[in-house]
Design a protein that fits this description.
The complex is a heterotrimer of chains A (about 300), B (about 325) and C (about 325).
Chain A lengths: L6 H7 L3 E12 L5 E12 L3 E5 L6 H8 L7 E11 L5 E3 L5 H7 L4 E4 L13 H12 L5 H15 L15 H13 L5 E5 L7 H18 L2 E6 L2 H7 L2 E6 L2 E7 H6 L4 H8 L10 H5 L20
Parallel strand pairs in A: 3-8, 3-9, 6-7, 7-8
Antiparallel strand pairs in A: 1-2, 1-4, 4-5, 9-10
Chain B lengths: L2 H26 L4 H11 L6 H11 L7 H13 L14 H36 L9 H9 L2 H15 L19 H38 L2 H8 L4 H39 L4 H10 L3 H29 L1 H5 L2
Chain C lengths: L33 H4 L5 H23 L29 H37 L1 H16 L2 H11 L7 H12 L1 H15 L2 H8 L4 H37 L10 H10 L8 H29 L19
Helix pairs in contact in C: 2-3, 2-11, 3-4, 3-6, 3-7, 3-9, 3-10, 3-11, 4-7, 5-6, 6-9, 7-9, 8-9, 9-10, 9-11, 10-11
Classes of the chains: A alpha/beta (about 300), B mainly alpha (about 325), C mainly alpha (about 325).
Chain lengths: ~300, ~325, ~325
């Protein structure tokens, strides 16, 4: 069932972005309403990896959930539009889809990868059952044997032993759970994958492995990715373009290279400066804020560590 | 030790505790039950057979010089042989016979009523908990009224309503006394007919607890991450409700089933009293009224064993439905 | 007789983690100010408090106002009216007057047993949970065994062995408390365990605080909502159990409670004589009181488990989440 489209093929199939978000506003309607996402506009190209970076609470997760309409009350989309440009030529207004249509759209065209270390997998059913769920719901014509084959194929693809299909989530390590989540997200060959901090809870070695998988799979299958994380250096390595979010707004959106070499917004610079360099002088970061990326700008004082 | 091993061990300890409790209660409390019993026995025309007296002394305590420890061992010996003494109120029947005759009635009544109550309560709890914020939510406080209603009062009301006033159901008894007990269709349907009101009492009184517990758990579970994943996967709402939410939410209800069973049994005893239902509950009360201590002790033991047994079964079941318990050390 | 078991209520912790809830800071200590502990006002709480207060007042003040409940008249069984608000019993006694005294009796028992049972469960649950180790294992085992042995049969057997003359109110109360503390102790233990592992408790232990101080300053205040909820359960349990005992004729010998009234009602053939005014009110008082307490417990639940709250939402016509 793999179509083996490369990213380039995907772009040729239908030119233009696969997802367009325009002037999106999301408000938490509580006693003192919180404007979590302010007037956000972005486009996601086919087969592109778009990084979404920012500190905790800046609204990046809210944005991602709102795109797929997974946001829960009291969160409410108060303005804007989200349009999905399907590769078969149709355009879907995601915010206007009726429930049943939304349900059929989900996972088939756009899937998500949550933090696997969280409770994202049902603890009382086997992993196989949870993969099967997707297939029986969206492709009811698939035979049992075909489903088994597909699950095993995907496990191979992400590098997990298919023999573990009958395990329960608590029997798997964090890294394996994350790979399972990725396998599950790829089941129906989606055009977009939204990944919410997929590697944050994993150790760095495992993290690297997962990221390489993602890149490789993207090459093979041609899907686009919105990669959400607070870890900016990771995005610099991984993404094609990066959007920096601060307090609900996108303050900068440019290619990874641009962000690294010529950051425009002060907050972007601040973020870049916040990560110590592996190659600079020892102690340079704490004393003077020198990071691998750049000289400290005059006027931007780095945080000093209180000697007490 | 594995999960199953630990459970078995626990119930053995509980059983031991119950039997020991049974042994000590008459000995710790004031009064001389054996003399009272022997006097009653003589009134009924029974003989003061030394072996009979001996059995009673083992059950209830005596003034003899025999050490407590050796009494305790002999007591266990009797238990192992199923010798629970002779009943005074049903003289000359043996206690074990009296129990054997009335136990099935209670087991059937309580068993069926509890299962119905559990199934209904959990099912309703699932629906109410899943559809939060709908009009169903306002029903929930109403069920608390039901749960706070004393079993026996509810029984009285039902009897007054359906028996005295409407004459739909019989006032009391387990079956039409004109029929003779047996496996005939006539008898069974009569028994079922007479069992409706008692069963209804139990179901109505206990359903509130299941419903509330399940509803609260559904609400809790609905905000779990795996539910979000399931929704993102585009699964049908019904499937999410059952396979993902309910499947997890029901766990505490099953775990708590054991404790609730204790309450249901308690309620059943009183219900039987109201309906003069020929189960083990009314026998217990008869025994109390007649100072038939041996029968009382015997019934307590049997009830406890039954409840422990049911708990054990439920605990084993829990190990099956929650795979995480099997993994724990 | 109720199986609203405290054990079927989920024991919860404040949610942590990158979930798109209302944006807030990362983990923080549960607010221990009085504001956070008191229940939020809601209709349920209002009704609950109203019922409980009304019945409590009836029990406390009623007996001072009504006549002698034991006064026998020649009028025999009469329905409500003509000077007797709730009619009379078979021996011409005023049902309303009896109800007032009986309510007082039941409330006294309920309160007494509630306090004793809660104290016992706090002892075994909190201390076991905090100290851990062998003590915890023993306490746990003990409460599990007490839990699993059926309560009412045990109470019946104990009561039956005590000669009627010595079966006073205190005796009954003690017996009820002994058989009723186990369920709450499990809940308290679970909650203590979860609190014990919180960062701020660890911090105070590292700082060298004595154990009793840690328990009383850090842990107890956060246990208050759970303790309150368990106390309410204990009172409900106590009143219902005592009523059941009295109904069976095994209650305290000189007392007059709602259960005793029902006992006399049944023995006086109130059912067959369709004297509803005799047996309906006592049970109704129990049910309403229990209901009121449960509603209060609901509100306490909403403190313990914020997910149960129904947020006041603005139902705008804008596009919101699909189911």
């Amino acid at each position: 069932m793999t179509t083996n489209t490369t990213a380039a093929d995907a772009r040729r199939a239908r030119p233009g972005p696969v997802l367009t978000v325009e002037h999106l506003d999301v408000i938490y309607q509580v006693a003192a309403p919180v404007h979590a996402v302010r007037d956000v506009s972005l486009t996601l190209g086919r087969g592109e990896i778009l990084g979404l970076a920012g500190e905790s609470g800046c609204g990046k997760t809210t944005l991602a959930y709102a795109i797929n309409r997974l946001h829960r009350p009291p969160a409410e989309v108060t303005a804007g539009s989200v349009t999905f440009h399907d590769r078969d030529g149709h355009d879907l207004d995601l915010l206007a889809l009726k429930n049943e249509d939304l349900r059929r759209f989900r996972w088939v065209k756009l899937s998500m990868v949550f933090q696997g270390a969280m409770n994202a997998l049902n603890p009382v059913t086997s992993v196989r059952a949870q993969l099967d769920d997707v297939l029986t719901t969206h492709v009811p014509s698939m035979s049992r044997r075909a489903r088994r084959a597909r699950c095993a194929e995907l496990f191979d693809l992400v590098g997990v032993d298919p023999g573990r299909l009958d395990s329960y989530p608590h029997e798997l390590s964090g890294g394996m759970r994350q790979r399972v989540m990725i396998a599950m997200a790829l089941l129906l060959d989606p055009q977009v994958m939204i990944m919410d901090e997929p590697t944050t809870a994993l150790d760095v070695v495992v993290q690297r492995g997962i990221l390489r998988e993602i890149l490789r799979l993207r090459e093979e299958l041609g899907f686009a990715v919105i990669f959400i994380t607070h870890d900016l250096p990771l995005l610099l390595e991984l993404s094609d373009r990066i959007a920096i979010m601060l307090e609900g707004e996108i303050v900068e959106l440019a290619s990874a290279d641009e962000i690294y070499q010529r950051p425009q917004h002060p907050y972007t610079r601040k973020l870049l400066d916040a990560f110590p360099s592996l190659t600079g002088d020892r102690g340079a970061f704490i004393r003077s804020g020198a990071s691998s990326s750049r000289e400290p700008l005059p006027g931007s004082q780095p945080e000093t560590v209180d000697p007490r | 030790m594995s999960y199953y091993g630990r459970k078995f061990a626990f119930y053995l300890v509980a059983l031991w505790a119950a039997v020991t409790l049974n042994f000590f209660i008459p000995r710790l409390l004031p009064g001389n039950p054996v003399d009272i019993l022997m006097a009653k026995l003589q009134q009924r025309g029974g003989s003061v057979d030394p072996s009979v007296r001996r059995t009673y002394e083992l059950l209830l305590g005596s003034d003899s010089d025999e050490s407590l420890w050796s009494q305790y061992l002999s007591y266990w010996n009797n238990m192992a042989h199923g010798d629970l003494g002779i009943s005074v109120s049903a003289f000359p029947a043996k206690v074990s016979d009296v129990i054997a005759q009335s136990l099935p009635w209670t087991i059937v009544l309580v068993g069926i009523a509890t299962l119905i109550s559990f199934a209904l309560g959990v099912a309703l709890g699932i629906v109410v908990g899943w559809r939060r914020g709908s009009w169903l939510d306002s029903l929930v406080p109403a069920t608390t009224v039901l749960a706070a209603v004393p079993y026996f009062w509810l029984a009285l009301i039902l009897v007054a309503l359906f028996s005295s006033a409407l004459h739909w159901f019989p006032l009391l008894g387990g079956y039409d006394v004109r029929l003779s007990p047996g496996w005939s269709w006539e008898f069974i349907s009569s028994a079922a007919y007479y069992g409706v009101l008692p069963a209804l009492t139990i179901v109505i009184s206990s359903i509130g607890g299941w419903l509330l517990g399940m509803r609260n758990m559904m609400v809790s579970t609905a905000s779990e991450d795996y539910i979000l994943t399931a929704q993102a996967k585009g699964l049908r709402p019904g499937r999410i409700m059952m396979r993902y939410a309910a499947r997890n939410a029901v766990l505490p209800s099953v775990a708590g089933f054991a404790i609730s069973l204790g309450f249901v049994v308690s309620g059943a005893i009183v219900t039987e009293q109201v309906f003069s239902y020929p189960g083990i509950g009314s026998k217990l009360l008869q025994a109390v009224q007649n100072n038939d201590y041996a029968l009382m002790q015997g019934i307590f033991l049997v009830i406890t064993v039954a409840v422990l047994g049911a708990n054990l079964i439920v605990d084993l079941l829990y190990g099956v439905i929650d795979p995480r318990t099997r993994a724990r050390r | 007789m109720t199986n609203i078991s405290p054990l079927t209520e989920p024991v919860s912790e404040p949610r942590e983690g990158p979930v798109p809830a209302a944006p807030e800071a990362a983990r923080r200590r549960p607010v221990s100010g009085w504001r956070a502990i008191l229940p939020r006002w809601s209709p349920k709480l209002g009704v609950g408090l109203g019922l409980v207060t009304a019945i409590a007042l009836f029990g406390i003040l009623g007996p001072m106002v009504v006549g002698d409940p034991a006064a026998i008249n020649n009028i025999g069984l009469t329905p409500p009216g003509g000077g007797h608000l709730l009619g009379t019993t078979q021996t011409g006694q005023d049902v309303f007057g009896q109800l007032a005294y009986a309510t007082r009796g039941s409330l006294q028992v309920g309160l007494l047993v509630g306090v004793m049972a809660t104290a016992l469960s706090a002892l075994f649950g909190i201390i076991g949970g905090y100290v851990g180790g062998a003590v915890d294992e023993v306490f746990s085992l003990f409460s599990n065994v007490m839990l699993v042995i059926p309560g009412l049969p045990l109470v019946i057997v104990i009561s039956a062995f005590v000669p009627a003359a010595q079966r006073g109110a205190w005796m009954i109360a003690i017996v009820l408390a002994i058989t009723g503390w186990a369920a709450s102790s499990r809940v308290l233990r679970a909650q203590t365990l979860s609190l014990r592992n919180r960062d701020y408790v660890a911090a105070s232990r590292v700082a060298g605080e004595k154990p009793w101080r840690v328990v009383s300053v850090e842990i107890l205040p956060n246990l208050l909502p759970v303790l309150a909820s368990q106390f309410v359960f204990a009172v409900i349990f106590a009143i219902l159990s005592e009523a059941g005992l009295s109904f069976l004729g095994l209650g305290a010998s000189n007392s007059s409670t709602l259960g005793t009234m029902l006992y006399y009602a049944q023995n006086g053939f109130a059912l067959q004589l369709e004297a509803w005014w005799w047996f309906v009110p006592p049970g109704a008082v129990i049910a309403l009181f229990g209901c009121g307490l449960s509603l209060i417990n609901f509100s306490i639940d909403e403190i313990i488990n914020p997910k149960l709250r129904t947020e006041p939402r603005k139902r705008a016509a804008s596009r919101s989440a699909a189911a």
